[in-house]
Write a structure and sequence with these properties.
metal ion binding, CBS-domain, mainly alpha, MgtE N-terminal fold, 480 residues, transmembrane helix, CBS domain, two-stranded antiparallel sheet, Mg_transptr_MgtE_intracell_dom, metal-binding, Tetracycline Repressor, domain 2, 3 domains, 5% strand
Length: 480
Amino acid sequence: MTEVEAKKPQESLQDRLAQVIELLHRHKLVEDLTHRQEGQHHDRVENLVHRQNLVELQRKLEDLHPADIAHILEALPLDERLTVWQLVKAERDGDILLEVSDAVRETLIADMDDHEILAAAKDLDADELADLAPELPRDVVHELMESLDAQQRERVRSALSYEEDQVGALMDFEMVTIREDVSLEVVLRYLRRLKELPGHTDKLFVVDYDGVLKGVLPIKRLLVNDPDKQVGEVMADDPVSFHPDEDGYDAAQAFERYDLISAPVVDKNGKLIGRLTIDEMVDLIREESESEVLNMAGLREEEDIFASVWKSVRNRWAWLAINLVTAFLASRVIGLFEGSIEKLVALAALMPIVAGIGGNSGNQTITMIVRAMALDQVSTGNTKRLVRKELGVSLINGILWGGVIGAVAYGLYGSWSLGVVMTAAMTLNLLLAALMGVLIPMTLARLGRDPAMGASVMITAMTDSGGFFIFLGLASIFLL
């Protein structure tokens, strides 16, 4: 191994990003300097310097994996992103487009003409083409489909016929099939004739002459068993398999539960039509996790961090508008007790504590519930049990921490009654937070909506308004 090769694993992705940014900045700096100079050879010098910097940057990009280039593109502003994108070799465009986020992919495709898109997509597999097709111009997709052979065209259409989160849209068509009545020696000779195995091949799929799945032959069994044995003797005849219309997230959980690397996909007649692989499942889990985080904050879709102001505004305005309404309601709750606040100024200093702790507690509850629902650990039928449990947790926390803040209030203002009111308000608001933390995601699920959608915004609104009303209401009754 050479010295350069030995250093490569030690170079982090952030180091590579920093190097690309440095080259871009150097290129821009030199370009600005040459623009200011005049002379007979100005254009020639500028062109030479321009090419030298871009060649160095292109050489750096050639050494990077498509996934690393995708990460770099996502981390660059639009003008620098397009500069880097234009330096990527055309044969790598398709792989990189599959790796970048949807929002960034949109900006890259918009910078490509039809010929470039066709060149990028021509070497992709059917399942990869199906991933890109919805984001490509319709006439390009039509021309692309015409260029495929009948089998590839049918596979792309099959993948496109399913929803994006169904197994049929995620499955891979590249797999190795064998018969159960041949020897392991025959299988080994067959594999040696192949140029290479499809990625993530940890098992071979055993089918009959009609293509019906009979079992799987793990590679490790193939290697350690007597070559004279038949496939049927050593294969696993009860593999975990999936149907194309199953939910992809359920399949991803099965991959995690059974430590799968690949798994067959069969139709209703048991015929093998594709396979799922661990890389697709990891991508799906990551996308679902990112989607939940965005939904909790009320963002409607994934957003390019360097998107235009107008695009970002469109993505964020809806829940901000709802939040504005709820904030106004909270202010009106405070307005109902203006007289009480004027008589006892300490209320103004203490009421944000009640609302803030309630919001944090509610977010804890709602995060636990949403996570459990995503993992299929709970359903809407468990609502009453979960409400009782979370109310119990909140009651203990309310009495404990409410007592602490009540003692602090007594120490600051010398009023034991204010301390008691503070403890009671804290406890009641935590109970409200627990109740809403369970009911909000459960109600959204019953309505067929994403349980995480705007959950953080809604729970904060409830605990703010409720906390102010409870604390100021109790203070008005018992202190004034």
